[in-house]
Amino acid sequence: MLPSDAYLKKEKKRRTKRACDFCNLKRSRCDGENPCSHCVLINKPCTYLRAEKKRGRASEKYPKNPKRRKDCRQKDVDEYDEYKPDEIITASPVLESNVTEIEKTLVPTNVHNMSTSQSENLDGLHYHSLTKKNLISADYKWPNETISSPSNSSREKTVLIEPHSPFSTPEEHGKGLIYQHQYRPYNSPELISSEYALNFNHYIFSIDANAFKSPTFLKTQHNYSLIDNINLDSITHSAFNGVRYVLLLKVLPYLQQVNLPGNVASDVLEYYFDNYVSPSCKISSILRKKTFLTLVNPVLSAEEQPHVRNTGEALILTILTTAVFDISHFFMTGHKRKMLFGKLIQIIKGLIQISSTDEDEIIDGTFDDIVTCCHLVCISPLLGNPAISHLWLRRGVRLAKKLRINEEDLSDVSEEVREERRRCWWTLYILDKHLNIALSTSTVITDQESKDLFHPCDDSIYNDITIVNLPSPFENDIDRVKGIQFNRVGPGVFGWLLMESMIIGSLVYYKMYIMNQRKISSSSTSPITSDSMGSNDDCSIDFRNQLKVHLDMLESSLPSLLQYSKVDSSYASLVTCVLNSLLNKDVFYWEPNGALNDNGTNFEEDLEWCIKYSEAFQDLITSDPDMRRYPFVIRLYIFFACVDVINLLNNLDKGFLKYKNSNIGALDSKAVKMKADALAVLCNRIKSMAHIIVRCVESCMSTLPADYLRVIRNIIMDALRDMDCLLLVKGFEKQFDINREKRKKIISVYSYVVNGAGIGL
User: Fold this and answer.
1) How big, in percent rounded to 5, are the helix, strand and coil portions of the chain?
2) Which tens digit of pLDDT belongs to each residue from 269-320?
3) Stated pTM of the model
4) DSSP class of residue 670?
5) For 219, phi and psi rounded to 5 degrees?
6) Residue ranges per structural domain of the chain
7) Exposed, middle or buried, 597 (CB in 10 Å: 0-12/13-18/19+)?
8) How does strand 146-148 pair with strand 125-126?
9) Which DSSP string do the residues of 363-429 spell out, in sequence order?
10) Is the dihedral angle over the CA atoms 543, 549, 553, 558 positive or is it negative?
């Protein structure tokens, strides 16, 4: 047989039954020696031996899009895995893939035996075959960092790079040190081009406040060799499954159960304690970053690791679940995020159970269980039932009262422990008032129970890892606020939102009083109007005037907040504007349908309030375009503002009456033109104002979705279309009335009367 006929002897490639979906989709080889990431994570042998497929049956699951890849059996001489074993020293990779493999650790004798002349010729850190295709591929295994000489490319050595904590400072390691800030995901601009990734001097320490990807810091000295900075204690072993923090070693079996690699879990933990962009489900910083982010010492066993805070497994998994929801990470692709979120929730429910709401039942638990309940209050609405949040809140408050964390601990404990107790109790207080107004529930925490507890310290001090001892309100900080105050605001949740929550608590009491005055049964079907409110008696008027005084005190102190944070000032201004609107209207906030059915509403007054809303929303969307700072809290006040906007759009036919006078025919053409121009200006102003509010609703929905925001957004857009038809289509008034009644019927679902659930549907 001629050599040209050798292809006739080639065996026909056939599909085997033991092939994973990941390899089948990529049309690539996966065997026992070089398994793909999918088979490694699920610990499954894969024998799909076909390297490439040109034709085949296409389907929705396996699209007909074969990818041409280089045969892995034909390796170049420049491949990093062709190096001799005696010349390789394993190092911690700069970017770790989602594949966990056992690395062989060798003694770095060759590096220390290098001569001075050899070390002077080393000019940078190089990657081999580092392309964008490698970065996108999930199976790409990062090579060890090597140092190459431009004069002799064949002489290459692998050196160790000392990993450092994300909160290291140059003062801790000496002067003249430069930190390079890189991001782990494959779309990092610093890693696309190997020319710039090789030279450390091109990129000096830079932090992007809008990016929320977990960083990796590399340390080197300017104009010096990297060999001088080798630290033998920083060799990364794979015995801990890639875990970088001691805290995660306690839940390592659970991480393996949910198929979460250790390096990804470390990234998630870093994202939770990020100072710039925190998870959207995290309402406050109860736990301190310095205490929890303790690096693993790779040369020690798990029992010999540095001592960290004794944290419960449920709390650690809850921290990871909170950050998994919206972290931007290459591992969280497709359905992985949803599956991981659900598995973690199931494990947490098995570790901490919801007890009965019976006040006489004895409840046991620790302080970590209270913090876990605080997180689950914010996570529960994502699972489809917002009412579960109140059950977690009641359990956390009952346990907090049993452990008496609402009182100052005068025992011999550290100030950090006292600060954790204060932050946990005031977080429960904020969540209680928030759920009171959102879900139409009764209050669980009274102001009397919080009168003897100091307010938490500033977040910038609490999250500063350079501060070892926190300031004590008994010694150093004599100006710390205690109990219920309305005239002191500051940055952060405990700076301004806590004061707003105290106002909301008073509003809840006012609501309960009005509801008792009305005495509306759950079977009542009569529409609620301003005449049936029953809020005109002397007692209710005095109580409302007192609320206005407290709100004015809070509003007068808001300008001082601007010097600390523009974003916090924008959020506080919007919440204050909504609360002012609720207090100044006859129809109160707990019944949106009552506001829409009120025939005595004033169109000009509603327009004035909506203009104030639009200005506050415009300021907020400029300061925080993604609405990432306080999405869990602010979306409720967005809902209340949108109800007023819908009320304005529903009464457009009344507002247009003065522009459509019946005697308009007797007027001259100039007067008719002036009225038409004024009507056009009014419509454009209303439309512009409504679009600004819709933009904020959509931004908040993209960060933290909610069904009631989606409904309220669609209603506003429908009302805007009716406004255009009311102006352009003759005889549209009848259809406008029909559409208005439909919008009222939809809004009536969010009811705050007896047995009403508010927005907790």
Assistant:
1) 50, 5, 45
2) 999 998 888 899 999 999 999 888 888 887 777 777 888 888 999 999 999 9
3) 0.67
4) H
5) -110, 135
6) 15-74, 80-234, 248-351, 564-761
7) buried
8) antiparallel
9) ----HHHHHHHHHHHHHGGGGT-TTHHHHHHHHHHHHHHHHTTTS---SS--HHHHHHHHHHHHHHH
10) positive
